[in-house]
Design goal:
heterodimer, A: mainly alpha, two-stranded antiparallel sheet, 30 helices, 69% helix, globular, B: mainly alpha, 21 helices
């Protein structure tokens, strides 16, 4: 299996080839190029699985790194094109590969008959390449490259139906909001690399940066400033508040795209990058606190927004925002494994839910749950798989989402044990948001599958190519959780898989392990004090937490019961979530973020600052130029009158080079009153040059 | 071709276009077709020769001047005919010949009113010698002659084949640039006398540097700065550019953006930095500030433009800001970035001007609102090209625009030549604002694409038969499109060639 490591570079390269081949030959093939995409992504996944198996069996493997000196950058510094393969890479490979392959297969039926079918597949492959280029990167600059390419693919796919203005706006909004975050990413990467200038000629190298950070060779300023800036990039890419505004709008793209890009993979890029740089993040309590707070705000307030949506894709989009908030919060409370484990399981069940919603939309030709109802009879496969996905999302015991979300809560608890209030925040707000999540997913399930059919179509189950991916993802939505559960082994589990030696030996330098769970901090620690920590990054194999399990079950039961009471039997009109007064208004306005962004950023820059700049350029600056021109011309004319006419009057040689002589001739070619000035200047220069010649000749 | 002994090849390549211009002028004007083909022939032969030079170039020793000729010229003033090519000159020199060839090919089919290919192409060939000369001249007087030689043909190109406001634009272009050159010339003279009045040779002067008092360095640099900054153009000396670009014929705009602006940044790197290192370091923070103002300000202006060509013209202000930011960093990475940005901007913006010209050929308007969208439906291939080049221009990684911009910001985080000690905070601020400039850049390009490319065509165009990309356009554009991709994927193509030469420049700075 080790041989697979040497070929890890093929994992991104195959989809790249696929994109090129589809673009060139796709239209000539019976499958419109989809067969190339499926073959390439499939092959790529096979290699990924080989790598995953190898790294999994090894347990916290030393990262496998290979790189090419791709280009000098000046000053002896080098840009490497490289691969860094460890458990984290392998995990992302598998996630991206599986979801991408499922989406490739699913789209054959879903996108059938689309005018731009081949283009769609080329973009899917290009996206897969970009994401994998980011994942495999052994240096931050390469990561930036993958990151930005991912953004472009997202733009192109959100705007896939570019005839409509709303879709164009959504695409622009996505690109520009994330690009704004990229200011942070790019400056952050630059700041971090500047800290490495003295240490290496490959200042972007991730492994070296981590070693330097852990070894204390990076200054605190470098780490805090660099990581906070990079975090800004992650905020926009991973839909954290307040830069999440693009993500719900991104649902304008075809549904398989929503599954692949705006739920399971691209939006996880920010989480992934922070995980990749986690040993650097872990050096600073400040950075972690900021990350945790943003994550907590996002997981709670993002989730609330799902309550008032009628569009099923919007419900799922806001749930994605909320779940990404959980992952971010986990990073901020030292839950390295918890964050990426949730990233992993969420990828499967969120892709499942999106593809399931696509299946529904395909059947009823509407995104709105108010146009659905009673679908469980007509669409049994979609129903069962969608429910499994919903249970996983809600964290129902023994689904994948249960194990991963509990890990995050436990991480919060351990963090609180170290005396950090953010740990409590994650724990309590995380539980509250779990209730919200369960409620809106139960609402969605009841509205879609129960009650009367409100659609104007006779719904039918989708074909095999759409159902099969649902089944595969449903299985994974349960099975993937067992990689890190009380049932998994102590040696061969998700934590050991995705840890590197640095992570395994890593501790939070600002945590005084001696005081952990001591009397000084118990007061602020949560009620459930089952977990223990010694200040190290890894928390060890999961255990049962009966008290937490009890709370989770109660919350789940209450939320489902409430949803059933409100939505179970029939579609209530008006929808109770639209009758919550101020609360509904606030949620309908999305807390005013979209509005504020438009009114206080877009409009001032696009309509006011831009006009002011143009005005100042045309009137003020150019006015000064014209003024200078006029004065010089007056001067030239004065010179002509006084010096030329009076002083050298009659001198033939003088006249030949005078302003008047030139301007008379130039006047014949051009009209306009600046001509004379031109002549004066040309004459001036020539006189100057002649003067030099004369002077040097002596 | 042996770079040590084949110095003649460079001279031949340099004056072949001028000779060609002479040949065209004696051809009878009625031989319209033959004249156009002759121009293609001349530029093709010149390009082939330059390709041979590029192949013969010793890349292992790219810091050394190759293909040199150094003979006496005007002995009265010690001016010599000394030319040569190194890793810094080569990419720009090559680009000059490539773009002129592509322009000649384009002109075989497309030439704006009043036609007259004979006059037009003669001027273009004259221009070519002037442009190419500035990149290989190693004598200040010779450099200045070439520098000024460029002005005249471009003046007539804009003035005769330009748009409605061509008279104003051409005179403004000419005078503004000339205004700067006067100060530059005075500074050259000051340098000459200060350095002992024995040589105008750039390399010899660089080796003598630093000379003169601090005051001398400041004033001499200021003089040179004005000359080059206007050419680049740096904010606030940029106002000639939108007018010149908007009014110039397509080929004029392509060469203006593709090569002419680069003469300014090249001048900074080749002349101002090594000969006046103390002045350069003193001015560096100011250059950095003006550069970043240019980035943000230029992008803001783009957002307000309603004319596609004027928008692209203003985008040059922003992009050249990144180039100048690289120079202001005063370290190797910064100079590398500046020179890479030079080439990338030449290729990308040259291509954008081709596209803007073709858009005008078809729609007879460049007003975004009048075109009104739907280009991807009306002219799908054209729309794809516009997207591709716009995305390259906004600095997407994997395409040429990225390396100049990213590397410039990266270099500026840690400026060289002792600037780090006193200006660390300033430069960090510059980097942040430059990065914000990239968002604005993305903003105006995406908005332009939205309004031109996307949506459905307006009623009035729906039945209008418009040609999609024509054969002649494919021929003249494909090399640029490939270069955009190749430079993005293999930045080594430029960085690698320049590396040793840039190290030398920085060596003169003592950084």
């Amino acid at each position: 299996m080790e041989a697979f490591l040497d070929y890890a570079w093929l994992v991104p390269v195959l989809p790249l080839l696929s994109a090129a081949l589809i673009a060139r030959f796709g239209k000539l093939l019976p499958g419109g190029g989809s067969e190339i995409g499926i073959a390439a992504v499939g092959a790529s996944l096979v290699i990924s699985l080989g790598i995953a198996w190898h790294t999994f069996m090894q347990g916290s493997p030393e990262p496998f790194e290979r790189s090419l000196e791709w280009s000098p950058l000046g000053g002896g510094f080098i840009f490497e094109l490289g691969m860094l393969v460890d458990g984290l890479t392998a995990m992302m490979f598998v996630l991206v590969g599986v979801v991408s392959l499922m989406v490739h297969i699913y789209s054959r039926e879903y996108m059938h008959g689309e005018e731009r079918f081949t283009y769609f597949y080329a973009m899917l492959s290009l996206f897969t390449f970009s994401m994998l280029l980011l994942v495999i990167a052994n240096n931050t600059l390469q990561a930036v490259i993958g990151w930005e390419l991912v953004g472009l693919c997202s733009y192109l796919l959100i705007g896939f139906y570019w005839e409509e203005k709303s879709n164009q706006d959504a695409a622009n909004k996505a690109f520009l909001t994330t690009k704004f975050g990229d200011v942070g990413l790019i400056v952050g990467v630059i700041v971090l690399s500047a800290g490495m200038f003295e240490l290496t000629d490959t200042p972007f190298n991730i492994g070296q940066t981590i070693d330097a950070a852990v070894g204390g060779q990076l200054s605190e300023t470098t780490i805090v400033l660099g990581m906070l800036l990079i975090f800004l990039g992650c905020v926009s890419k991973s839909g954290q508040m307040p830069l999440h505004v693009w993500l719900p709008d991104a649902m304008a793209g075809p549904t398989p795209v929503s599954a692949l890009i705006h739920a399971a993979t691209m939006v996880t890029a920010g989480i992934f990058l922070l995980a990749r740089l986690f040993p650097v993040v872990a050096q600073s309590a400040t950075v972690m606190a900021v990350i945790a707070v943003v994550g907590v705000i996002t997981l709670f307030f993002g989730g609330l927004l799902a309550l008032v949506q009628d569009d099923i894709k919007k419900v799922l989009a806001y749930s994605t925002v909320s779940q990404l908030g959980y992952m971010m919060a986990a990073i901020g409370v030292g839950g390295y494994t918890a964050a990426i484990f949730h990233l992993f399981t969420h990828g499967f069940f969120k892709a499942l839910l999106f593809l399931g919603s696509g299946s529904l939309i395909h059947a009823v030709h509407s995104n709105n749950m108010s146009d659905m109802g009673g679908m469980r009879k007509a669409m049994p496969w979609t129903y069962v798989t969608f429910v499994i996905g919903s249970l996983a999302l809600a964290g129902f015991p023994l689904t994948a989402g249960f194990f991963s979300k509990d890990e995050i809560l436990i991480a919060g608890e351990i963090w609180a044990g170290y005396g950090f209030a953010t740990g409590n925040l994650v724990y309590y707000v995380g539980l509250a948001a779990a209730f919200v999540t369960t409620f809106y997913m139960a609402r969605a399930v009841f509205l879609i599958f129960f009650g009367e059919n409100r659609s104007h179509h006779a719904p039918h189950e989708s074909g095999a190519q759409m159902v099969a991916p649902l089944v595969v993802l449903a299985v994974l939505s349960i099975a993937s959780g067992y990689l890190f559960s009380p049932f998994s082994g102590d040696e061969r589990n998700f934590e050991q898989w995705t840890a590197t030696p640095v992570i395994e030996e890593g501790v939070f330098p600002f945590v005084d392990a001696g005081t952990a769970l001591g009397t000084g901090t118990v007061a602020s620690a949560p009620v459930v004090l089952a977990a223990a920590g010694d200040g190290s990054i890894l928390h060890g194999p999961p255990k049962w937490h009966p008290d937490l399990l009890a709370i989770v079950l109660v919350l789940f039961g209450a939320a489902v019961a409430l949803a059933w009471r409100l939505y179970g039997r029939q579609f209530p009109r008006p929808d109770p979530t639209s009758q919550m007064g101020v609360f509904t208004r606030v949620l309908d306005n999305k807390y005013g973020f979209d509005e504020a962004g438009y009114r206080f950023v877009v409009v001032p820059v696009r309509d006011h600052l831009s006009r002011w700049a143009t005005w100042s350029s045309n009137v003020v600056i150019d006015g000064m130029v014209a003024g200078t021109g006029r004065s010089v011309r007056s001067l030239a004319e004065a010179t002509y009158r006084v010096v030329d006419q009076k002083v050298i009057d009659g001198s033939v040689n003088g006249a030949a080079f005078s302003a008047a002589w030139w301007s008379e001739r130039l006047k014949r070619m051009q009209t306009g009153d600046v001509q004379r000035y031109l002549g004066a200047l040309v004459a001036g220069v020539i006189v100057l040059v002649l003067a030099i010649v004369a002077a040097s000749g002596n | 071709m042996d770079p040590a002994s084949a110095g003649w090849a460079l001279t031949v390549a340099l004056f072949l276009p001028l000779l060609g211009a002479g040949i065209l002028t004696i051809m009878p004007a009625r031989l319209d077709r033959e004249i156009r083909l002759a121009a293609v022939g001349i530029t093709a032969v010149s390009f082939a020769l330059v390709s041979l030079i590029a192949l013969g170039f010793d890349y292992g020793d790219s810091g050394r001047l190759q293909f040199t000729t150094d003979v006496g010229w005007i002995s009265a003033i010690d001016a010599r005919y000394s030319i040569g090519i190194d890793g810094i000159s080569l990419p720009l020199f090559f680009l000059t010949y490539l773009l002129t060839l592509l322009c000649a090919i384009y002109t075989t089919k497309i030439l704006p009113s009043p036609g007259k290919p004979k006059a037009f192409l003669s001027l273009m060939l004259m221009l070519q010698t002037g442009m190419a000369g500035t990149f290989v001249a190693f004598d200040l007087i010779l450099f200045f002659i070439f520098w000024e030689l460029v002005l005249v043909p471009m003046f007539f190109m804009i003035g005769m084949w330009g748009g409605p406001r061509r008279d104003y634009a051409s005179v403004k272009f000419f005078l503004y640039t000339l205004f700067g050159s006067v100060f530059m010339l005075v500074a050259f003279l000051a340098i000459y006398f200060q350095a002992g009045a024995t040589t105008w040779n750039i390399q010899e002067l660089s080796a003598l540097a630093p000379f003169g008092s601090a005051t001398f360095q400041t004033w001499a640099f200021l003089g040179i700065f004005l000359g080059f900054a206007i050419k680049v153009p740096m904010w606030p000396f940029h106002t000639w550019l939108p007018d010149a670009h908007t009014e110039a014929p397509t080929v004029g705009s392509v060469l203006l953006a593709g090569v002419l602006l680069k003469m300014g940044t090249y001048g900074f790197v080749r002349i101002a930095l090594p000969i006046l290192p103390e002045g350069a370091v003193r001015f560096a923070p100011l250059i950095g500030v003006l550069a970043v103002i240019g980035i943000v300000y230029g992008s803001l202006c783009c957002l307000a433009q309603t004319d596609v060509k004027r928008l692209i013209a203003f985008s040059s202000v922003g992009h050249m800001g990144f180039v100048m930011l690289g120079i202001a960093a005063m370290n190797e990475a910064g100079i590398q970035a500046a020179l890479f940005g030079n080439i990338a901007h030449g290729v990308i913006t040259g291509m954008l001007f081709f596209l803007a010209g073709s858009l005008h050929e078809r729609y007879h308007t460049r007003e975004i609102a009048e075109i009104g969208g739907g280009l991807l439906i009306k002219l799908p291939r054209y729309g794809v090209l516009l997207t591709f080049v716009a995305v390259a221009s906004l600095g997407l990684p994997g395409l040429a625009g990225f390396w100049g911009e990213f590397t410039a910001m990266w270099a500026a985080i840690s400026p060289g030549a002792g600037l780090m000690a006193s200006y660390e905070g300033l430069y960090l601020t510059l980097v942040i604002f430059a990065a914000i400039g990239t968002v604005l850049t993305a903003g105006y390009f995406l908005w332009m694409l939205q309004r031109v490319n996307l949506g459905r065509p307006l009623e009035k165009w729906a039945d209008e038969p418009l040609d999609d990309v024509m054969a002649i356009e494919w021929v003249s554009w494909t090399p640029l499109l490939l270069l955009i991709l190749a430079l993005g994927i293999f930045p080594r193509l430029i960085f690698g060639v320049q590396d040793a030469a840039v190290s030398q420049i920085i060596g003169f700075l003592g950084g």
